[in-house]
Specification:
single chain, 162 residues, 7% strand, 68% helix, elongated, mainly alpha
Length: 162
């Protein structure tokens, strides 16, 4: 089960990096982070069944999710946001892609330091990615709304094929 979670997390990370490097409209939706979070919570609950949940485990998990938020904010800071055809767009560069890889490495490394084993880090990869993506998306939306040309236009549907 842990190897499957790790492979799934890496595949999703690859998809997220690819999406980071492609110009895309800034959207209000939270569908992808929500799906990842739901699956991640289900995996976490399944993993924790029959295990003793203590303060160290909870604090370690909270610390990991704080790391996810920090990396999400860092990626948002290095992502370009602009208005094109009355719509807010965003695209990250190579630094944003590197930050995704560093985020996953930090998550797994943090788990090794806190728990001396990799099981919890592997199980919580999807939850970690969901939090990181959610924070990044929220910051990018706020940045897009502050653009002078945006004024309530960045939530419109894009013109043309997707």
């Amino acid at each position: 089960m842990n190897v499957t979670n790790l492979v799934l997390g890496i595949v999703i990370l690859g998809l997220l990096i690819w999406r980071q490097l492609v110009a895309r409209p800034v959207r209000e939706g939270y569908r992808v982070p929500l799906i990842l979070a739901v699956i991640g919570v289900i995996e976490l609950i399944s993993f924790l069944k029959g295990k003793h949940v203590n303060g160290t485990l909870v604090a370690g998990l909270a610390g990991s999710l704080v790391l996810a938020a920090i990396f999400g904010a860092a990626r948002a800071a290095v992502t370009r946001v602009w208005i094109q055809d009355g719509r807010a767009w965003r695209r990250g560069g190579w630094l944003a892609a590197v930050l995704w890889v560093l985020a996953l490495a930090a998550h797994l490394g943090y788990d090794q330091l806190v728990y001396k084993h990799g099981a919890l880090g592997e199980v919580t990869i999807l939850l970690y990615l969901a939090i990181s993506l959610l924070v990044q998306g929220m910051i990018l939306q706020a940045r897009a709304q502050r653009l002078p040309e945006a004024q309530d236009r960045f939530m419109q549907e894009p013109v043309g094929p997707r």
